[in-house]
Amino acid sequence: MSEIATDLPRPQAASVVTEGGLVRGLLVTVAIVFLALFLVLPLVTVFVQAFAKGWDAYLAAFREPDALSAIRLTLITAAIAVPFNLVFGIAASWAIAKFEFTGKNLLVTLIDLPFSVSPVVSGLIYVLVFGSQGLLGPWLIEHDIQIIFALPGIVLATIFVTFPFVARQLIPLMQEQGTAEEEAALTLGASGWHAFRTVTLPNIRWGLLYSVLLCNARAMGEFGAVSVVSGHIRGLTNTLPLHVEILYNEYNFVASFAVASLLAGLALVTLGLKSLLEWRYAGDLAASGRRH
């Protein structure tokens, strides 16, 4: 029987690719043309226009006081918003992935809210709440507290549009890892904080870095919500994206593209780091799958 079975032809594995070579080639061509027209060409144009009048003109765009103020404000906003989102994202993802509680589905829905609300609308909401004619406006004026058209309003708007990034990356990763390792640590006498620091955090480190990277890139490049709450006060409340818009509207094209190239460079660096962290992040998920 074994000899007969050995001689039988083995079935060929069915291919999951059913399209012919012509169709595959057409799909690849469409994708490449699309990326070239809508991604590569605009990116190249930004750098070409930025250096259109030479290196000196390019550097001069960053020596302007308004440009330095915009860079400083952008960095301060990101430095405040990202840690807030980091703490919230870890806490929310840990609660959702590791525990069952009333309102869990509501929390997941609220985390996705900034993805479904226009940034301009979210900025307008802050104006309606904290503006001089808003819900809390009279009380804020009475106590000499300014939120709208100042740094606090910009930070609040940035936190709102970026807070899903950390939680949304960590929730599936923690759910895949389950609770077995934390339960084992607790059984051996570890405290909850010690189990989180020595077990949970090392398992999510690459996914955490990946989410923080995306959150920081969005915080530094946010335009819509910040545009509403900033008031466009030159040298005070303009971030880099707003400064680019002002320069372009004033027909100062070289300076506007020079500042835009800084944001484009940030995007390229983010893309490179994102690819690296995606590889490590996928490794975390694969290792988690093997353990479970």
Structure notes:
This protein has 292 residues and is mainly α. The chain has a single domain (64-289), classed as MetI-like fold. It contains 16 helices and no strands. The protein has helices at 2-7, 21-50, 54-63, 65-98, 104-111, 113-116, 119-130, 137-142, 151-162, 164-177, 180-187, 192-203, 205-221, 224-230, 240-249, 253-291. It is globular. The protein starts with a helix and ends with a helix.
Concise summary:
The protein is an all-alpha fold and 292 residues long. It is built from 16 helices and no strands.
Task: Give me some keywords for this one.
mainly alpha, MetI-like fold, disordered N terminus, 0% strand, 292 residues
- The CATH superfamily is identified as MetI-like
Q: Radius of gyration from the CA trace?
A: 25 Å
Number of strands: 0
The fold-level CATH name is MetI-like fold
Q: Count structural domains.
A: 1
Q: What is the count of helical runs?
A: 16
Structural class: mainly alpha
In terms of DSSP E residues, the strand content is: under 5%
Instruction: Compute the separation of the termini in Å.
Output: 38 Å
Instruction: Quickly give the CATH architecture.
Output: Orthogonal Bundle
Shape designation = globular
- Helix percent band: over 70%
- Poorly predicted runs are 1-14
Oligomer: single chain
Main sheet specs? none
CATH top level label: Mainly Alpha
